[in-house]
Amino acid sequence: MRYVEQEQAALVEAAYQRAGCIAKVATSALPTAVGEFAIHVYQELETGLEHVALVKGDITHGQDVLTRVHSECMTGDIFGSQRCDCGEQLHLAQQRIQTEGTGVLIYLRGHEGRGIGLSNKIRAYALQDHGLDTVEANLALGLPVDQRSFAIAAEMLKCLKVCSIRLMSNNPDKNSSLQRHGVSVNAIVPLRIPANANNRKYLETKASKLGHLFNWPVFRV
Ligand SMILES: [Zn+2]
C-alpha cells in the first residue's frame, strides 16, 4: 500500500475504533456440510454492511483461538473461480476449525477485490487478460491496490471476548493491521493452497508485490 493510502486507511480505522462501530444483530446455530457452527451477524453502523462470525465451540475468554479473517470474494467463495485462491482458503480454514473443535471464521463483506468492489474487480480481471497483473490492473483503473480495513474484524473479536488468536493467513499486512487494532496475534498459521494454471501469476504477484508468504512454518509472534 502506498503511504497516502495507508494514512487514509489508518484514519478510517481510528474513527471506527472511537465510534464503537458495530452491533450484534442476529445469532443462530448453523449446521454445515463441514460441521456444526454458531453464526453471529454484526452490522456496521455507518454503512449497514453485515459481517459474519462463524464460531465453533466456546471461544469466550479463549487464548490462541484458531481464527480466519476472510475477505468476501463472490467469484472465489461461491463460484469456485480459479483466478484466485479465496474459496480454497475459506474452505480449508473452516475445515481446520472444525477439526480443532474450537475457533472462529470472520467473514467480512465489502472487501471484494481488496476493497474495490465487485464490478471493479471484474474490470481488473479483463485487464489481466490483456497482460496486466493484479496490482497493475487496479492502478490502471485509478483504484488503490488494497483499501481493506480490518478494524471491524478486530472489533468483532473484542465483542466475542477472544483474548488471543492464531491467525490463519498468508498476508503479513492483515496480521499487522489486526495487531494495530489491539488483537493479540500469538501465531501465524499459513494456508498453503497449490497454484493452478489460472492463478499462478496472481499468487506470484501477491508474493512479489504484496508481501504474501506461502511457505511459512507455524511460528509464534
Ligand atoms: Zn478471490
TrEMBL record:
List of residues binding GTP: R68, V69, H70, S71, E72, Q89, E112, G113, R114, T134, S169, K174
Catalytic activity annotation: GTP + 4 H2O = 2,5-diamino-6-hydroxy-4-(5-phosphoribosylamino)-pyrimidine + formate + 2 phosphate + 3 H(+)
Gene Ontology molecular function: 3,4-dihydroxy-2-butanone-4-phosphate synthase activity; GTP binding; GTP cyclohydrolase II activity; zinc ion binding
EC number: 3.5.4.25
Keyword Metal-binding belongs to the record: yes
Keyword Oxidoreductase in annotation: no
Active site: D146 (proton acceptor), R148 (nucleophile)
InterPro entries assigned: GTP_cyclohydro_II, RibA, RibA-like_sf
Key words of the record: GTP-binding, Hydrolase, Metal-binding, Nucleotide-binding, Riboflavin biosynthesis, Zinc
The GTP cyclohydrolase II domain, residue ranges: 25-190
Cofactor mode of binding and number, as noted: Binds 1 zinc ion per subunit.
Sequence similarity: Belongs to the GTP cyclohydrolase II family. In the N-terminal section; belongs to the DHBP synthase family.
Entry-linked HAMAP family: RibA (MF_00179)
Name by which UniProt lists this protein: GTP cyclohydrolase-2
Encoding gene per record: ribA
